[in-house]
Design a protein that fits this description.
The complex is a heterodimer of chains A (693) and B (686). Chain A has 23 helices and 11 strands. Chain A is an alpha+beta fold and 693 residues long. Chain A has 2 domains: 119-283, Butyryl-CoA Dehydrogenase, subunit A, domain 2 (Beta Barrel); 288-379 and 389-635, Butyryl-CoA Dehydrogenase, subunit A, domain 3 (Up-down Bundle). The chains are: A alpha+beta (693), B alpha+beta (686).
């Protein structure tokens, strides 16, 4: 890169400086950033973040400056180098899982060890027998074997029962033959498989004696441990460049009648007797689906943090960026901070409220999950409910797991959609500079997007919620006692339906929660009428179900947020002013949602048209005014380090323009090239720089 | 590379047989509809002719480009741009031919600003003498130019630009100088590595007569040489370079540029409208300041017109793929047949089919926008400026709405395709990356809606005060609204479920009522402008949606040539577009009495009914947009439906990553097996 002339080095942005503006922002609010951070993340994890940062940031291998300029092949090579270094550090410093996870978060990119460290180990642990733990898990934990989880196929995603890969039991030599009968049977999208893993847990249709027993997990070696070449009759590779996630080697995998021994079928829940060739069924299927519920609850919790990155960047930048004078201000005033414009506020501040809402909701779900796990472990005895059914077929009613499962499906869909779409809103709110990779939002958005389709496509999942709500409604109508929250809100609606709702949503916070519950209950009974009384086909009701699930999930977020801000825990942790602000964030999230879904609220009778008009013209506007002065401190409280944000626009110190300029002029390899611009000269370059390309 | 995978076929029914059946079941004459949409200016003939030339050129193959680094991808982009320019000479292409080639290759050309804003600005804003000097140089490509307006700290607010052009009365020169870092030019296309000249917009500073102070006369355009014609290095006193990686536009060298007391001659100021007397330093003002922004209106009108083709690409891919993709058996069916085509699920239809309808709405709107622009230009050339304000307002509102519809539409299509939509074979990644610049460029979509609202408030004020005579259609509508309002409210009820014309009226009424609300808040109640911005944005959207619905309706009502099946389906698409829009804005329609609550409640069922009528024709309807596979560059959206074969081919055979064997053991720093190359070696190459 040519050296920067002195006169350029001497230039400063025109005043007021970004750093001054952010100082002003921080001075005008009393939010106690430290206390709020501790409430959100705990003191312990904040300290962990700090010490990890000090360790990682100086390592050259973790340098982020070229992340967005490299080609795919180089990126993946660097990504593997990062993964190796992380693992070495982990060993050296004896990191816990939490620490490794936190380190990965700071690096900010998926690495090729990702699926080994998560799904491969988890599946071996949860679905393997003690013998299999010894054989596979122990070696995997030491990275002597490196694995992945191969379920999705080229032609089959959400419908696991439609998988085409087969595992046929050979009673003669006590082996399974794994085979891909068609091209669409190819495993596809399998993280860490493309170039890195040498083993895979493969989901395949189990056939015994010509009979299909459904998909089961098998451990299959796919590459040689010495040469790292694919084994014979195994076809494996990376699936190519993607919208994001390009630091991960998502793979394809085909088998041409590959044999694996009996012990390679993970047999904790289902197995084949070697001698009798007979199949025994899963004993505790609910525990398996418990894992999925845990994964989804985690997605909800993370969604708050994912969104927080975008909101932090956009809020700080919009406080630094100034544009136009206020039309009604006097002519000598400077340009106005973009964050003062109502149409910027109305996009960003509800997202600011959403990130808090999702965080508290995720917390609430994790708590429910853990309570339920311990209760189940105590209560469950083998033999109970042994039909081998999926969770959607479990009986509704008092069963907490069913409630939790349905809840997690709907919330996963709502939370990841809110976060994904919210990031794009943040990017656009940053105007032109949001389009630069140095904004830090675009690349983050591209990497996050698959979350909207994996672990259950967001639209598909909504059916499971609807199915559960319909079952609950039937149970309530049949007079069964209301055993959980879902049944209770349905019962309340039935009891009060003839009296009318008359909720004071503008005056009483708890009435807001009640209005959301009312709308959910109303939509549930409407859907039930269509399905049961009018006998409409399931397929024709999918759009209704999707609306119903969204409504129900919004209710859950509103309820969890309300519970959190009214909790004694929050009152002890925060000063009254910050606590009041949390209530305002709650109201902003709830009322902004109510206003956007206005039609459903008034047609269900939860609120009146007058209330909606007031929400729109007065309540939301006032909340924007009230929250605006605290916006920067509210994002500061999320405590995301600059290194993790990797954003010129979102820097804590507000030196937006200096950093954009520095990166463009000093970290940008395109500027090493001098081009010949004329079309009739086919030579592209005037200079061919020595090594760089 | 022959192996057992060569023999594998997708499971049945496969893509080709599925698409064949889709095409069998619909009676839409795709050729007729395709001609109706695209043949008026020779588009289809041109597309076929240019395509056959492009497909013979190896560097125009798109198969591996997604794997390249930014520098390599930029080099490829420039190599392609050069080739296209040479092909243009060889085949004696017209400007439209050349634009077609760029459209099909689908790289943002690093020559783009040279061919558009640079030359247009010279044509429109240079004096006759300046034009005589510069145009031959530009047209013969002796110089290559760019357009530098936006700065690091200043975008939409052109008056806030910081770069100075200070008149030196002794030497009769202007001195270009960047007083701050935020004065750096930024985002200027074609300037980062390619151009050697640029139009530079700077604050014109002239000495105040009788004092030594300088006064700014606002931003003005100057033509400036920025690089040496031989070495292509920046001239002394100029720092210029590329601003680095972006979300998209990877083949464009968007620039930064700073000046250090850089001197340019008096003749550099483009002086068709305003000028500085070289002897006295006295400034002459333009008669009509709005004219200076005429080319921006042109750019916006073009963006509106182009949006249909962008969205049609995404919808073509999504519809073909979601018919080929199958998932789950029908719950109420006998569970024996094949899995259901994903497009048969209403949750998929509700995302894609309204977008299919939107492509047609965008088409007719784009045509109408072009006509309005042409007429206004003609008027202006004749010295009549009356239509300027309307054109400006219409282009702002439609640019905001149409680019949002297209940008969000691409992303909706991509997500509706589930996992494979995320893959490089979707064909929507570069499209998404490139097109997502549109909502913020050439006027941020949120900012420019103020211009629409400002215009409507003025019109409403005139109607309320009953100023002027009859006026245009909008004046008539506003006056009628005021009359009815004064007569005690609106009692009429529009039958939106049964009358296509009433739908138009309902949209008009909602836009008018919102315009009245805005007028009331701003003019009567004197509310602060900033506090109204959200409301004003909604007003602009309502007005632009009303224009789209009206033009769609009128295009169908006046058409006499299309066959009956085509017209029937177009009417259904009109209804789907309008009613789906109405449903999502239901509250606004209801509040101003533009729709009855019972009708509003009936909309979801009506929309679902329309979708099931359109569903069988979906594949034929997208076929009618006649988008070639070369442009789609999509395994999922191929005309022949060989989705899975193509995905596998791209992954297995075209993917350079699969030629490298990695060393996966974390305790060994080596990355590529047997190479000994480790992480720090990779870093040192940067």
């Amino acid at each position: 890169m040519p050296s920067t002339p002195e006169w350029v080095k001497a230039l400063k942005p025109s005043g007021p400086q970004g750093s001054e503006l952010l100082q002003q922002e921080r001075a005008q609010s009393n939010v106690n950033v430290e206390k709020l951070s501790e409430l959100l993340h705990t003191k312990e994890s904040l300290q962990r973040q700090e010490s990890l940062l000090a360790l990682l940031q100086p390592e050259k291998v973790f340098d982020k400056s070229q992340n967005h300029t490299l080609g795919r092949v180089e990126r993946l090579q660097r990504s593997l180098a990062k993964a190796k270094r992380l693992q070495q550090l982990s060993e050296q410093h004896k990191w816990s899982m939490e620490e490794l996870h936190a380190a990965n978060e700071l690096i900010g990119e998926p690495t090729p060890y990702g699926l080994h460290a998560s799904m491969f180990l988890v599946t071996l642990r949860e679905q393997g027998t003690p013998e299999q733990h010894k054989l596979f898990l122990e070696r995997a934990q030491k990275y002597e074997i490196i694995g992945c989880y191969a379920q999705t196929e080229l032609g089959h995603g959400s419908n696991v029962r439609g998988l085409e890969t087969t595992a046929t039991w050979n009673s003669s030599d006590k082996t399974f033959t794994i085979n891909s009968p068609t091209l669409t049977a190819s495993k596809w999208w399998i993280g860490s498989l493309g170039r890195t893993a040498n083993h895979a847990v493969v989901m395949a249709q189990l056939f015994i004696d010509g009979k299909n027993y459904g998909p089961h997990p098998f451990v299959v070696q796919v590459r040689d441990l010495e040469t790292h070449q694919p084994l014979e009759n195994v076809y494996v590779g990376d699936i190519g460049p993607k919208f994001g996630y390009n630091t991960m080697d998502n793979g394809f995998l085909l088998f041409n009648n590959v044999k694996v021994p009996h012990v390679n079928m993970l047999a904790r829940f289902s197995s084949i007797d070697k001698d009798t060739n007979s199949y025994s069924r899963p004993a505790l299927p609910s525990l398996v689906f418990g894992t999925l519920t845990w994964v989804r609850s985690n997605i909800v919790l993370q969604a708050g943090g994912v969104l927080a990155r975008g909101v932090t960047i956009a809020t700080r930048y919009c406080a630094v960026r100034r544009q136009f004078q206020d039309r009604d201000a006097d002519a000598h005033a400077g340009e106005n901070q973009v964050l003062n414009y109502k149409m910027v506020q109305v996009r960003l501040l509800p997202l600011l409220a959403s990130m808090y809402a999702l965080h508290f909701t995720g917390r609430g779900m994790m708590r429910l999950y853990e309570e339920n796990q311990s209760r189940m472990k105590a209560a469950n005895s083998p033999g109970q409910d042994s039909r081998g059914a999926g969770p959607e077929e479990l009986r509704a009613g008092a069963n907490l797991l069913a409630d939790l499962h349905a809840t997690s499906c709907g919330l996963k869909a709502l939370a990841s959609t809110t976060a994904g779409e919210g990031l794009e809103v943040c990017r656009r709110a940053c105007g032109g500079h949001g389009y630069s990779s140095y904004s830090g939002i675009g690349p983050w958005y591209s990497d996050y997007l698959p979350t909207l389709t994996w672990e259950g496509d967001n639209y598909m999942l909504t059916q499971q919620v609807a199915r559960y709500l319909l079952k609950s409604a039937r149970a309530v109508l049949a007079g069964k006692p209301a055993g959980n929250d879902t049944s209770q809100i349905l019962q309340t609606y039935l009891d009060r339906r003839d009296k009318g709702a008359s909720f004071d949503v503008l005056g009483e916070d708890k009435d807001i929660v009640a209005a959301f519950a009312w709308r959910t209950a109303h939509l549930t009974f409407e859907a039930l009428k269509h399905r049961d009384a009018e006998q409409r086909s399931w397929n024709s009701l999918l759009v209704d179900f999707w609306r119903l699930s969204t409504a129900h999930s919004q209710y859950l977020v509103v309820k969890n947020f309300y519970d959190a801000v009214s909790s004694p825990e929050l009152s002890t942790a925060l000063d009254p002013e910050t606590k009041a602000l949390m209530h305002q964030l709650f109201r902003l999230y709830a009322l902004h949602t109510l206003e956007r879904e206005a039609a459903e609220f008034f047609s269900s009778g939860a609120v009146t048209v007058r209330q909606i008009t007031l929400t729109r013209t007065t309540a939301v506007m006032n909340l924007l005014d009230e929250i605006r002065p605290h916006a920067v401190r509210l994002v500061d409280s999320w405590a995301i380090p600059d290194w993790q944000l990797d954003s010129s626009l979102g820097r804590y110190d507000g030196k937006v323009y200096e950093d954009l300029f520095r990166r463009a002029s000093q970290e940008n390899p395109v500027n090493d090239l001098t081009f010949d611009p004329y079309p009739w000269n086919s030579a592209l370059l005037k200079n061919e720089p020595k090594s760089k390309l | 590379m022959s192996d057992f995978t060569d023999k594998l076929r997708p499971s049945q029914p496969d893509g080709p047989s599925t698409l064949a059946q889709e095409r069998e079941q619909s009676n839409i004459p795709t050729e007729e509809l395709g001609k109706h949409l695209l043949s008026s200016d020779g588009f289809l003939e041109r597309q076929a002719r240019i395509l056959s030339i492009l497909q013979q050129e190896p560097i125009l193959s798109k198969s591996k480009q997604q794997n390249l680094s930014r520098p390599e991808r930029f080099k490829l982009g420039l190599a392609r741009a050069k080739l296209l320019r040479r092909l243009s000479d060889k085949h004696k292409w017209s400007h439209d031919d050349y634009k077609m080639a760029e459209y099909l290759v689908d790289d943002v050309s690093p020559y783009f600003l040279h061919m558009e804003m640079f030359i247009t600005t010279i044509r429109e804003q240079a004096s006759e003498e300046q034009r005589a000097y510069w145009l031959p140089l530009i047209e013969s490509w002796k110089i290559i130019g760019a357009y530098a307006q936006t700065e690091l700290g200043h975008g939409s607010n052109v008056r806030g630009l910081e770069l100075e052009a200070r008149w030196d009365s002794h030497t009769k020169e202007f001195v270009l100088h960047s007083p701050t870092l935020t004065a750096s030019k930024w985002w200027n296309g074609s300037l980062g590595r390619v151009a050697n000249h640029a139009i530079v917009v700077a604050q014109l500073l002239l000495p105040e007569p009788g004092s030594d102070r300088f006064v700014s006369h606002g931003p003005h355009p100057f033509i400036v040489q920025v690089r040496d014609m031989k070495t292509h290095q920046p001239l002394e006193g100029i720092v210029v370079g590329d601003i680095g990686p972006k979300y998209g536009y990877i083949t464009m060298d968007n620039a930064y540029m700073l000046f250090d007391h850089f001197r340019i001659p008096h003749s550099a100021l483009l002086s068709r409208y305003s000028s500085v007397n070289p002897k006295t330093g006295v400034y002459t003002k333009p008669d009509r300041p709005a004219l200076v922004y005429g080319s921006l209106t042109y750019v916006r009108a073009n963006i509106v017109h182009h949006a249909r083709l962008v969205l049609a690409r995404a919808v073509t891919i999504a519809i073909r793929y979601t018919t080929v993709r199958r998932q789950f058996q029908d719950r109420d069916g006998d569970k024996r047949g094949p899995e259901v085509s994903v497009l048969d699920y209403p949750t998929v239809q509700i995302r894609i089919l309204p977008l299919l309808a939107t492509t047609f709405a965008l088409h007719y709107t784009g045509l109408a926008m072009r006509t309005v622009y042409q007429n206004a230009r003609d008027d202006i050339e004749k010295g009549d400026f009356n239509s300027l304000a309307y054109m400006h307002s219409m282009s702002s509102g439609l640019k905001s709405l149409c680019t949002m519809l297209a940008a969000d539409g691409i992303e909706t299509c991509r997500r509706a395709m589930g996992g494979h939509g995320y893959g490089g074979g979707s064909g929507l990644i570069q499209l998404n990356n490139d097109y997502l610049s549109k909502p913020t460029v050439e006027g941020d979509n949120w900012m420019i809606t103020q211009q629409v609202a400002g215009y409507l408030i003025k019109k409403m004020s005139a109607a309320v005060e009953d100023r002027g005579k009859g006026g245009d259609e909008m004046d008539v509508r506003f006056r009628a609204f005021i009359r009815e309002k004064r007569a005690g409210g609106l009692l009429r009820r529009y039958d939106v479920l049964n009358s296509d014309r009433d739908v138009v009226k309902s949209f008009e009424l909602r836009a008018t009522a919102l315009a009245y609300d805005a007028y009331e808040q701003r003019v009567i109640k004197k509310k602060n402008w900033n506090s109204l911005l959200i409301q004003l944005h909604k007003l602009s959207r309502a007005q632009s949606q009303s224009i789209m619905v009206t033009t769609f309706f009128e295009a169908l009502s006046t058409n006499k040539t299309l066959s009956a099946p085509t017209r029937t389906i177009l009417w259904d698409l009109y209804r789907l577009f309008a009613l789906n829009t109405m449903e999502s804005e239901g509250y606004e329609f209801f509040r101003c009495n533009a729709v009855a609550q019972s009708d509003l409640d009936a909309l979801p069922a009506r929309i679902q009914d329309l979708m099931s009528r359109i569903r069988p024709h979906a594949v034929k309807l997208v076929d009618s947009w006649m988008i070639p596979d070369y442009l789609l560059d999509s395994a999922l959206g191929r005309y022949d439906g060989r989705v899975y074969e193509d995905l596998f081919n791209r992954a297995h055979r075209l993917n350079p990553l699969n030629r490298i064997t990695f060393n996966p053991n974390y305790w060994e720093d080596e990355i590529v097996k047997g190479s000994g190359v480790n992480g720090s070696d990779i870093l040192s190459k940067l």
